[in-house]
Amino acid sequence: MKQSMNILALDTATDITCACLHVNGHDYPAALDGGQRIRSTGIMPLLTGLLEQAGLEWKQLQLLAFSQGPGSFTGLRIGAATLAGINAGLHLPVLHLSSLAVTARQAAVTDQLWVVEDARAGEAFVGCYQDDAAVMPERCMQWQDIVSQLPPGRFVCHAEPPVAMPGWQRQPLLLDRATALGQQVQAVLPAQDKQCALPVYPAPAYMQLSQAERSAHAR
Fold it and tell me: One GO biological process from the UniProt record (predicted)?
């Protein structure tokens, strides 16, 4: 059951930047499809447009939600910085969401489902879900270890896997990401009397070393 709150959610973990505004039991999803330059300049107009569409002012928001990753380093940094800037004056609680759980929700299935998202550098972000709940901790794995160590099953991803995955069955992403983002907010939203314990600063979950960190470790 949806809570009657004004909630603004932002997801910049994938190539598609999306947001969803929840107002009076209704979701307003929207997406911004483009590269990093479009992302960095387009997020605020995207969010402002949602507020205007719903007839809402910034000061009427009650909670922010952040798809914290794992995902694109640059995307997560941009998203976190944007919400941090917005929240500097609002001081709202920030609900942190798993970007892999949002992807799982795009498949619109309740049976066990793997999410395997390419993380580059020969690695992937991996999660497993059933009935909208994680059945194992999310992790970053080498692609060859996924094939050799995990039991084949149904999976979803945004980019084509860079390796052959015999026995695995890729499933379509049926829901647009902005709609799935709004659904995930409602699925994990704590009761209102517990929301005061949420942080006010968005914290990305990178789950992987940056290229600069990799270079430093290699020295």
Answer: tRNA threonylcarbamoyladenosine modification
The number of residues making up the chain comes to 219
Instruction: Please report which confidence band the pLDDT of residue 34 belongs to, taking 50, 70 and 90 as the band edges.
Output: low
Are the beta carbons of 202 and 83 closer than 8 angstroms?
A: yes
Six-digit token pair at 110?
A: 């309740």
pLDDT range class, residue 213, cuts 50, 70, 90: very low
- Say which residues have a Cβ less than 8 Å from residue 153's Cβ, sequence separation at least 6: 112, 113, 114, 168, 169
Tokens of 63: 């909670």
Q: Please, what are the domains in the chain? A: 7-99+175-218 (3.30.420.40), 108-170 (3.30.420.40)
Residue 1: pLDDT over 50: no
Evaluate if pTM is beyond 0.70. Answer: yes
Q: What is the pLDDT of residues 62-113, one digit of tens each?
A: 999 999 999 999 999 999 999 999 999 999 999 999 999 999 999 988 899 9
- Residue 8 CA to residue 5 CA, distance in Å, equals 10
E strands, the chain, in order: 7-11, 16-23, 26-33, 63-67, 94-97, 113-120, 123-130, 133-134, 139-142, 154-156, 169-170
Angle at 175 between CA 174 and CA 179, to 5 degrees: 180
Structure tokens at 40: 């960095």
Burial call 86-106: b when 16+ CB within 10 Å, e when fewer: bbeeeebbbbbbbbbbbbbbb
In this structure, are residues 133 and 103 in contact, taking their beta carbons and an 8 Å threshold?
Answer: no
